[in-house]
Write a structure and sequence with these properties.
434 residues, mainly alpha, Growth Hormone, Chain: A, MFS_trans_sf, transmembrane helix
């Protein structure tokens, strides 16, 4: 068995590259909605409300995709463990592409009335179901192809791809955000969503050449002998790991408050320039592209826990000076704190969690366990954080202390949970499977 499970080292670079480009392209689709929700969608799908109420509804629509992700994990996870990582990667790619392109074609509230936000939420649900299986499958694919001494580094390229997709989604919106409002609200906001058609074709061309890891093939032979199912196995033997991953995954609260609430808070509450604020996540994601693989390489040497815990604490507490800088209108403070918090400290945790979480599960149930744990955590953080931060900011969307304190408390909880996890950085994958 050990001999068979050492085979994944044959294609680590190919798996890392396929995971990177696929995740980058697919998460462009997912992230472009968050940017649009903070800048445009609150005006054209929820008109007639106060700025704070319209923004809150828009943030709730952002959260819907996260709330349904545990359901998607229950569907996509077992598919990845039964029919292969590649099967789920291709399925989710087309689901995400269709939903994103469809959003760009939707009628606005002025045209279709209440049906406009209903259709918007329906598309967002489909995006959430797709995203729930994509990352877990891509991470499992790259982990099982990696050398034992560089698993964090190899799997980190999946998250680096996600980071690039988020950067691209924000960057694409910058020239359209500079349009006059009548053009932006009529057609300009649609173009970034329509670009998903190009995204789907490019990702399909790359991912169709993927091969299943030998470790997965070996695990499937064992499962057929035992006649068990991934869901039954996870719920009977790995419940604690799922709960641990779910709580640790709430570190995503930092990302959600940064990319959605803070942008809306700055532009709709404080009245800062929309174009200037869009450059903050572009700059932070640019730093993240460099920081994620570097921190992952560090964790292969010193361990997963110190890097992940340090990132969770530093990033969550940096939300205090970042939101204060927005409140005070300090452009220099906004860029320094925002880029350091999200591009630097958050990347410490963001680059480590693919290996940190995935190594809590054996190969035979890795996609199922990883998908369930992460999507429950993402559902709580993504579904609650933007709306909670908006509500804590007050009726006029001008308060910063409540949202900043909320993020700091969540970061402290994540660090406490992660401190109790077994260190797996220097264990062979074969030993983790046993």
């Amino acid at each position: 068995m050990s001999q068979t499970l050492s085979a994944p080292a044959k294609h680590p670079r190919r798996a890392a590259w396929a995971s990177w480009i696929g995740s980058a392209l697919e998460y462009y689709d997912f992230a472009v909605y968050g940017t649009a929700a903070a800048v445009v969608l609150n005006h054209i799908f929820f008109p007639g409300d106060s700025p704070a109420a319209a923004t809150l509804k828009s943030m709730v629509a952002v959260g819907v995709a996260y709330v349904v992700r545990p359901l998607g994990a229950i569907i996509m996870g077992p598919l990845g463990d039964r029919f292969g990582r590649k099967f789920v990667l291709m399925l989710t790619l087309f689901m995400m592409g269709f939903a994103t392109f469809a959003i760009g074609c939707l009628p606005t509230y002025d045209t279709a009335g209440i049906w406009a936000p209903i259709l918007l939420v329906a598309c967002r649900v489909l995006q959430g179901l797709s995203a729930s299986g994509e990352q877990a499958s891509a991470i499992s694919m790259s982990l099982e192809h990696a050398n034992d001494k560089s698993r964090a580094f190899t799997t980190s390229w999946t998250l680096q791809g996600t980071q690039f997709g988020s950067l691209l989604a924000t960057a694409v919106f910058i020239p359209f955000a500079a349009l006059p409002e009548d053009q932006l609200f009529s057609w300009g906001w649609r173009v970034p969503f329509w670009l998903s058609a190009v995204v789907v074709v490019a990702a399909w061309l790359i991912r169709r050449r993927l091969e299943e890891p030998p470790a997965f093939t070996q695990a499937m032979q064992q499962v057929q002998v035992k006649k068990t199912t991934p869901l039954r196995d996870v719920f009977s033997a790995h419940k604690t790991a799922v709960l641990t991953v779910a709580l640790c995954a709430m570190v995503n609260t930092v990302n959600m408050v940064f990319t959605t609430f803070a942008l809306s808070y700055a532009t709709n509450g404080i009245g800062l320039d929309r174009g200037m604020m869009l450059w903050v996540p572009v700059a932070s994601n640019g730093l993240g592209l460099l920081a994620i693989p570097l921190f992952a390489r560090l964790s292969d040497r010193v361990g997963r826990k110190p890097v992940f815990i340090g990132g969770a604490l530093l990033a969550s507490f940096m939300m205090v000076p970042y939101l204060w800088s927005i409140h005070s209108g300090s452009v220099l403070g906004i860029f320094l704190c925002g880029v350091l918090m999200h591009g630097g400290f958050y990347s410490m945790a963001n680059g480590i969690w693919p290996s940190f979480y995935a190594e809590m599960f054996p190969t035979r149930v890795r996609v199922t366990g990883l998908a369930l744990g992460t999507q429950i955590g993402f559902a709580v953080s993504g579904g609650v954080a933007p709306a909670a931060a908006t509500a804590l900011s007050g009726e006029n969307l001008t308060g910063w202390v409540g949202p900043a304190s909320f993020v700091a408390v969540v970061g402290l909880l994540v660090a406490l949970v992660a401190s109790r996890v077994r260190e797996t950085a220097h264990l062979p994958l074969a030993e983790i499977d046993r």
